[in-house]
# Entry
Amino acid sequence: MVVSFDGVGWHDRWERWLDLAERVPFRFTGFLSGTYLLSDQTRDRYHPPGYPAGTSAIGWRPAADVPVEIADLNRAAAAGMEIGTHFNGHFCATAGLPAGGDTWTTGDWNAELDQFFALLADVGPNNDLSSPRLQVGRGDILGARTPCLEGDPGQLYPALRQHGVEYDASSSTTGLVWPRRDESGLWLVGMPVYPVHGALPDGRTGVPVTAMDYNYFFTQRGASSVGVTPAESAADGRQVLATYRDMYRAAYRGNRAPIVLGNHFNDWNDDAYTQALATFVEQTCGRPDTECVPFRDLVAWLDVQTPRTQRRPRGAAGGGGCAAIGTLVVVGGQWGRTDLAKAEPARTTRGGRGGAGQSWNRCRLE
# Structure
């Protein structure tokens, strides 16, 4: 199971999720918006494609927040969490802006990524900070999720590959399916579009929704909490929790495809979605044959599967059980890979920063 958060610029939420990860075997991916490494005083260092310098669709925060964000990122990295890129200014053409992910060219995406990596490298001098020093660098950024899940693959993917990105987590899939690779070698690890459990507030049932908190909020309440009572918000959260459990049962009893859950640092709908996810993580991570890992570790494991094990899984999600064929062990230290072609089960190691070793497996494939 892979849990991720977009933006990751809220100290309170960093503390909440990192504290939870100390109680259960849970590690996650945070997709960082690069503008959180600038402030309202240094905003002009960002030059978004198609907009004046210093423009951001998610606003700017005071200078005092930048060292707090650096400390949060450092704590996350030390605890074995992954940091990916959510690009910078969060420009979404589908939100009515004149330019954004759906209109950008490869050159525009390259400009965003060039600036993202520069903001990582220069956060100290950009903000006249000598400490804390950011412990996340370009080599740590292996994956991306675009703002609003926008982007023409023909324009986006070449920019990702040119910047050494190994996977994209911006897509969605019909049901629970295994990630696939495109012709360039980029892993496409999408969130499932899966039926919501039970009836929605408007009475509809069986409605498929992308497994992301904002999508649930939009589907349940039109992305507005106006007039929604605390009891209704709590019921919305229970519905999302039940949907997560439906997905887990279907994957566990079926094809064992990774469950990919997308989220934000948010308090939408009276915190319904944060609470639903926290309950699901606490009750699920660490169960038998269940590992909660960042995208980085899923992709490392996928990289070392043989052609035979990459073929179609036996049965669809919701079918019979599966047998283990391989193991990924996450340990501290350097990354290393071992070919799984010679023996089953086999082992590969890919070490995150800190954290105890973990092992996980997937279905028998044919």
